[in-house]
Amino acid sequence: MWSPTEEEKYGVVICSFRGTVPQGLVLELGETVQILEKCEGWYRGVSIKKPCVKGIFPANYIHLKKAIVSNRGQYETVVPLEDSVVTEVTATLQEWAVLWKQLYVKHKVDLFYKLRHVMNELIDLRRQLLSGHLTQDQVREVKRHLTVRLDWGNEHLGLDLVPRKDFEVVDSDQISVSDLYKMHLSSRHSVQQSTSQVDTIRQRHGEACRMPVPHHFFLSLKSFTYNTIGEDTDVFFSLYDVREGKQISERFMVRLNKNGGPRNPEKIDRMCALFTDLSSKDMKRDLYIVAHVIRIGRMLLNDSKKGPPHLHYRRPYGCAVLSIMDVLQSISEIKEEKDFVLKVYTCNNENEWCQIHENIIRKSSTKYTAPSSNYGLIISLQLLRGDMEQIRRENPMIFNRGVSVTRKLGFPDVIMPGDIRNDLYLTLEKGDFERGGKSVQKNIEVTMYVLYADGEILKDCISLGSGEPSRSAYHSFVLYHNNSPRWGEIIKLPIPIDRFRGSHLRFEFRHCSTKDKGEKKLFGFAFTPLMRDDGTTLSDDIHELYVYKCDENSTFNNHALYLGLPCCKEDYNGCPNIPSSLIFQRSTKETFSVSTQLSSTKLTQNVDLLALLKWKAYPDRVMDILGRLRHVSGEEIVKFLQDILDTLFVVLDDNTEKYGLLVFQSLVFIINLLRDSKYFHFRPVMDTYIQKHFAGALAYKELIRCLKWYMDRSAELVRQDHIQEAMRALEYLFKFIVQSRILYSRATCGMEEEQFRSSIQELFQSIRFVLSLDSRSSETLIFTQAALLNSFPAIFDELLQMFTVQEVAEFVRGTLGSMPSTVHIGQSMDVVKLQSIARTVDSRLFSFSESRRILLPVVLHHIHLHLRQQKELLICSGILSSIFSIIKTSSLEGDVVEEVEMMVESLLDVLLQTLLTIMSKSQSQEAVRGQRCPQCTAEITGEYVSCLLSLLRQMSDTHFQHLLDNFQSKDELKEFLLKIFCVFRNLMKMSVFPRDWMVMRLLTSNIIVTTVQYLSSALHKNFTDTDFDFKVWNSYFSLAVLFINQPSLQLENATPPKRKKILDKYGDMRVMMAYELFSMWQNLGEHKIHFIPGMIGPFLGVTLVPQPEVRNIMIPIFHDMMDWEQRKNGNFKQVEAELIDKLDSLVSEGKGDENYRELFSLLLLEKIEQETWRETGISFVTSVTRLMERLLDYRDCMKGDETENKKIGCTVNLMNFYKSEINKEEMYIRYIHKLCDMHLQAENYTEAAFTLLLYCELLQWEDRPLREFLHYPSQSEWQRKEGLCRKIIHYFNKGKSWEFGIPLCRELAIQYESLYDYQSLSWIRKMEATYYDNIMEQQRLEPEFFRVGFYGRKFPFFLRNKEYVCRGHDYERLEAFQQRMLSEFPQAIAMQHPNHPDDSILQCDAQYLQIYAVTPIPDNIDVLQMDRVPDRIKSFYRVNNIRKFRYDRPFHKGPKDKENEFKSLWIERTTLTLTHSLPGISRWFEVERRELVEVSPLENAIQVVENKNQELRTLISQYQHKQMHGNINLLSMCLNGVIDAAVNGGIARYQEAFFDKDYITKHPGDAEKITQLKELMQEQVHVLGVGLAVHEKFVHPEMRPLHKKLIDQFQMMRSSLYHELPGLDKLSPACSGSSTPRSNVLVSHGPMSPESIKLVHRHSPLNMLGSVRHSSSSLSSHTSSETGNLVILTDSSVGETAEDMYHMQASPSTSSLSSTHSAPSQMINSAPSSARGSPSLPDKYRHSREMMMLLPAHRDRPSSAMYPAAIMENGQPPNFQRALIQQMIGPCKPCSDPNLSVAEKAVPAAPSSWSLDSGSREALPFLSAHAGSILAPPVPPRSLPHGHYSLHFDAFHHQLSDAPPALPARTLRKSPLHPIPASPTSPQSGLDGSNSTLSGSASSGVSSLSESNFGHSSEPPPRTDTMDSVPSQAWNTDEDLETPYLPVRYSLSEPDVLESLKSQPCRSHSAPSGVIPQDTMDPPALPPKPYHSRLPNMENEEGMIIEDDDKHRPLHRKVSQPVSAGKEEQARVAWEHGISEQ
């Protein structure tokens, strides 16, 4: 049976449970669980991680922990009963764990590893804390480490700052807001300090900031490795100050044996010392560690003869030094010891031994010798800080090693009470001794003893150094042969205090002989007593002692014999009558000096002090003695403090009248001395004295009298130093007074109580008197008042011992009240006064509620005055926060209503005013310019905000009620409400509290919402009906809106635990405020109209908060607004406009979501349903909802890493919506500019121009002024439109869309012309001209177009289930485009068929992309059909302004004829019409309409033949008009493709299919079409004939076999058509020459069987050159594997198998008959598109190949994936194919012009010319001159009347069998090219060749085919076969050159022509002027299309158009010409003869 648990409430999982039973709860090891019920070894409960899921788990898997259960029952909460720090660590680690993993994902590796380290540390510290084995100190330390790490991690992870007190998290409910603010501040500082170790130390010791921190050096001697002395040594370490030239510490002594180890084996690893009590000042001195090494052994180290071996002397050996300054940095950074090696230097001259350390430091290297090796003393150092107690506590290991404490000479900075010390330091300075008749100087040793008065030698009173025990005798070291030794050795004499008086020192001098016996001979002595007769100790000075002679036999048993003698000069002067006949004679020439220094807390060297302590001995000198006390040093006074005080009070009791004032002054002096930081620690000694030892029961009367007397005099005296000193000593004076009175009361049972009280009253009157004096005139008085105010708060505690709380409070109130108000006193006094008040508030007195009621009014009065005047704000805020802190604490225990009431009355208004002022200052720059820094301003703001919040938090209903009732008028109330609302608004606007102070921010919000609830009723009551006040209401609404939008309240962004915590404590405050806001809105009634449309934006912002409840409350307000506006205006246009405006900006800021859109629509439609204006309302809500859809899409695109395309599409969609649906012009224009910027970023310049054009079209050419908008300044409409036009023209230029820019140029020109602005007009006309040039000269690529379908609901709204046509980028082919689309939509699936998708795909939750290429259908057909329009111009119209696109899919209808598939081959043609034409404001537009038609086989055939004819016509025309230069490959391939296909069954198949009688009878309706097909076939034959004629002229000699083969095949083709087409019978049989038939050369478009096809790589050179458009749409024929044998260069290994063939997609222009043989029809080209270096090409030609790859393919195959393929015969190309390749590659060199951009370099202008700029500049004179004019047959018109095909093909017949004319062979060499300069006089050819006619005699039937040399020389120039003969300009990128192959022309007789021509420079594509011979008999064979020349022409008598002859100039020949064949000459003569006959 399950029963609720009583004890078992909380546990930790100790073994993972998989939940394998029914209702089992899955638990991981370490999870915590809350247990609800139990049953037979099982528990039921929840995991803390997932509190919603309940389940059961085994009881033995759980370790139970004690816990506190609150709110028992269904909703109980359980908190584990453990240290709060442990709980916090647990919760924090769980929170961090999630964020820590995210760091790894986000690549924040550094923080990831740091945090892992910190988390491990936390787990370890938590374990230590839970173990329970730590001492209290250790627990504190562990907690400190824990909190530092928690705060560090929280800060770095961006989590909230945790306010703490004593390491524990504070509860914000238990403390005042001011205290909470301070805790946040201190937590912030501790987080910042935890980063650096130095700061933490500073912080740790910062508590007792008045006490300087002592430093200590720990020194340990590791070894003396250099010890090769072979004798025992003593090493003395000490600290030495270089500047002062003296030791500052005792010596630390180490005794070593001859091996360098310690002489005492116990000392191993314990040779260490602690040099203590170094002050901060000492650390800045130039200190050194000095080590003196004294050896103990024979006199001379290296001379065994000197001195007997058994006698040992102390002899100087060497010295080592280490600069502390040098090592301080390195040892203060680490916390452990650091090793150093000290070299030991030996002294060169023993006489200078006492200075050796100085010499080493000064580096006087001549005076010492460096050691031979680097070894020496190895020591380790460590720097420690803190007092000795702390050092012992923190470093117990040091003291366990038996460290020797080595003190400073003299006292440290801080003398601690109880630090008893009695050390006399004696330095053996020097001696001067006589030689004593010896030839050499003595070796002198000094022995010293300490003797007591009775002559007994004192044991253990001499210490050579710490670290060794004291001894009874001292032996100095011996200096060899030195009568004036200088020792400089310091000895410490720790003599017991009781033995000090009467003791003396005796020094015995001996000569140490080095003879055999080696005895030490005594020859003299000296002595000195330690105390003088007057009781003072030996002074700290050098004492020169008398030396008395004696010998070994002298006895010192009776010390009285010599003690009577003078020891020194002063002594001698003191007693001159000394008998001279005594035993000891003074040696007048010998002296001995010692110096002493006393460090004693018991003995004094001061006579005055001694006199005071023994004052009774000098009764007549008491006044003098008391006066001299001021001159005694502080150290002496604090040493004898108790004795001095006792003496003073005894003196006072002795004679009050006489000594009272002097004793008072002495007491004041001593009390003030203790205020010095050096003696600050003696204050407890003073306190203890007063409490326990003070016995002056009568002293109080005199002290009060003196104090009052001083104060009363303060008004008169000029010098007030002594008065000020008395004021400073006030605290201790009162302590003495009160203690004295207590003692008196005890003694007399409370007598004279009244007198005492009245005397205190009088004293306070005097105090008030002093404070009330006007101090402005006297500066000294100010200091007196300041001193009094500073000391005043310290006396409260003393008074409370004698008086009640109320009495003391009254005293204090009177005193504080006596101070003049701020207006009268100076600023410095202000500060002092406020500090005094602050200390009053902090005193114990203020903590009693009785005293607070008395004191608060006066305190508040002063603060109020200061706040009114904005003075001393920082101190005032401190006082206020203390008051609030006390009141908060008191409010938890008792009632504070009255005090809060006082504070509300006095402070609330002035606090608001102060805050407004501070906030406005901090927002302006005053804070920076003023006295305080911005940080202080922020701090002050924080302080005052916390004070205001504290006050508001303490206020209850009654307080608010009183407050509101107390306002005299509504104006006052209004002002108050405006102020408080304004402050609250600023609180939320300005971030007063940093982002991570979440506790503080939430508490602030809670206080604000509570306050607003109290105030809103007053607002409603007072300002709604008649007194409606817009300003207050507006302020209220703004506040509410800001409140709900606060970032800290957006709980959706918080982690689940944090959200739960906030909701448990405060609830969702946004909902509370929303309810408040809604009810206030409803209360407004008819005044609502004032807030329309002003409040729409703010309210909309509130509804966008992602909190369902807030949305439900607030959205209906919009209906209300619409309703009110409808009532007032009859519509709600304002609401509509404002809503739409604000919605845009708010959604773009990231607010709102899909749920909001649905809720908005739902709630409003529901409300609107009942209204009369329902229809307009519903349409409005619908359009807003649709706008939201688009805005959300737009935002998602913008904020994601979306591609440009998506962003652009989204923006276009939104822009159009603004324009078309809701007609918001301003928003529309904004989005135009956003779109433009996106295009510019993506470098879509044409689209950017079209986009801006939308704005431009909205403007008129008027002078209407326009306001500033976006980045436009305020200007007139004309100026803005002009600026826009210029920018648009610039963008069209960058996008190479000059045709679009030209109309704008014209529009601008008209404007400039109308304004007579000729300068601008000239500029714009030039610009227009430049654009025409650019059109003709610059290369432009024709883009591909792709149709894309976006299917599925996962696509953004603007794409969903729509189809678009996209304009591809340059060079972008289908597979690249598809790849791009798939990368833009990574989730999308590419559909593999072109069929329209069904509903299942349209409605599925996925993304499907359907992509295929489409063909543009140009609108402007006229231009494209004009023959003489250059292809560059046509190219533009083919792919621009396109709105319709076509896609063809071949299919078979009915039975398929195996023999001839064309019979059943139908085409399904889809025509797509777009919403806008491309290019436009986007690279893609939506498809508006689809049309599907089926094309019958016959119609298909007609179109195919017609297209091919058009293509041939265009190509031939280009060669005729010199648009294609030299390289004839394109023409060769095209002709070959058509003729060869026709021979092999291309046209023949059509004949079979459609001219068949069966077909004609079955399809009687097709008769007309059949006739049309016949005509087209006839036309094709004719065009081919013309094409072959042109080919004949241009063909390369090596390609002659190909040409002959074409001629042969043409004959066959003609004859095959002869039978079918009766129109051909008129053709002359002359073409049927005897040339042998050859195999087909080039098959570029036949339907090829997959087996026989080798794939041509798309980028292979031939493919590039062999113009894709020409190859893809020809008539094709069945081709066998033997068909062709021309190799096409491909990548070496591409497409070896049939599967590799491109998947073909049939298209309008490709509708080749080959579809049945092609691979399955699919959209995607699968062939690789990379162009690798072809192995077929030698390296030397590879650059040419690369150039060819860059050539743009001619396009007529936009949707075709099939490329021309070629068939290889036996794997080897035949000769003429090599020639073709050679011709392609031969004359090309890579162009490199530094002025060209990469893009320009990459795009050659025409497939046959290698000049990048070819066709764009004027032809070079020398080339044109020699080239002459080409008169080639023009392209026949499209449809000629039947019967005009009577042209005789004699031209072909003539010379066919002859060898071709010799052309210079073009060999590629790497030799440099020598340019051939153009002559400036060379005119250009007058014949441009662009409109030449085949002229010949129809009657004669003879026309001469010849190449002519253009010149008058009868002798042809020599032939050159070298490359050098080709002009180098042929490769020049900037000039337009003819091809190096000289053109073959149909020629007139040259001289005649020359005569009749005028030579005129013109552009290569300018209007042509041709020579048209008229035939009066017959019409010309091929009438040209009408083409009107723009040049002025005149006709000659034969009807020829000739040009003016005047301008003809001689032409220079500069290019070598081929030798003309003789037959050509004859032919020319014949031709001329024919002409002359005419």
Please provide a written account of the structure.
With 2038 residues, the chain is of the alpha+beta class. It is 44% helix and 13% strand. It has 69 helices and 41 strands. The chain has an 8-stranded antiparallel beta sheet, with no helix packed on it. The longest helix is centred in the C-terminal third of the chain and has 28 residues, at 1567-1594. The N and C termini lie far apart (132 Å).
List keywords for this structure.
2038 residues; alpha+beta; 8-stranded antiparallel β-sheet; 44% helix; 13% strand; elongated
Oligomer: single chain
Number of strands: 41
Cα gyration radius (Å): 57 Å
Structural class: alpha+beta
Give the helices and strands, then pairings.
Elements: E1 3-4, E2 10-13, E3 32-39, E4 42-47, E5 54-58, E6 62-65, E7 67-70, E8 77-80, H1 84-105, H2 109-131, H3 136-156, E9 164-165, E10 168-169, H4 177-193, H5 197-205, E11 215-224, E12 232-241, E13 246-247, E14 252-256, E15 272-278, H6 280-284, E16 287-297, E17 313-323, H7 324-333, E18 338-342, E19 345-347, H8 356-362, E20 368-369, E21 377-385, H9 388-394, H10 396-400, E22 404-406, E23 422-432, E24 444-451, E25 473-475, E26 486-493, H11 497-500, E27 504-512, E28 520-529, E29 542-549, H12 560-563, H13 569-574, E30 586-600, H14 607-613, H15 622-628, H16 634-639, H17 641-654, H18 656-673, H19 683-693, H20 699-713, H21 721-728, H22 730-748, H23 753-772, H24 779-791, H25 796-802, H26 805-818, H27 827-842, H28 849-868, H29 873-893, H30 897-923, H31 926-929, H32 934-954, H33 957-965, H34 970-989, H35 998-1022, H36 1030-1044, H37 1056-1066, H38 1069-1084, H39 1096-1103, H40 1108-1114, H41 1116-1129, H42 1133-1148, H43 1154-1168, H44 1174-1199, H45 1204-1221, H46 1225-1241, H47 1245-1258, E31 1265-1266, E32 1275-1276, H48 1277-1294, ...
Parallel strand pairs: 15-22, 35-36
Antiparallel strand pairs: 1-3, 2-3, 2-6, 3-4, 4-5, 7-8, 9-10, 11-15, 11-21, 12-13, 12-14, 12-16, 16-17, 17-19, 18-21, 19-20, 23-26, 23-30, 24-25, 24-27, 27-28, 28-29, 29-30, 31-32, 33-34, 33-36, 34-39, 36-37, 37-38, 38-39, 40-41
Helix pairs in contact: 1-2, 1-3, 2-3, 3-4, 4-32, 14-15, 17-18, 18-21, 20-22, 20-23, 21-24, 22-25, 23-26, 24-27, 26-28, 27-29, 28-29, 28-30, 29-32, 30-32, 30-34, 34-35, 34-36, 35-36, 35-38, 36-38, 36-39, 38-40, 39-40, 39-42, 41-42, 42-44, 43-44, 44-45, 45-46, 46-47, 47-48, 48-49, 49-50, 55-56, ...
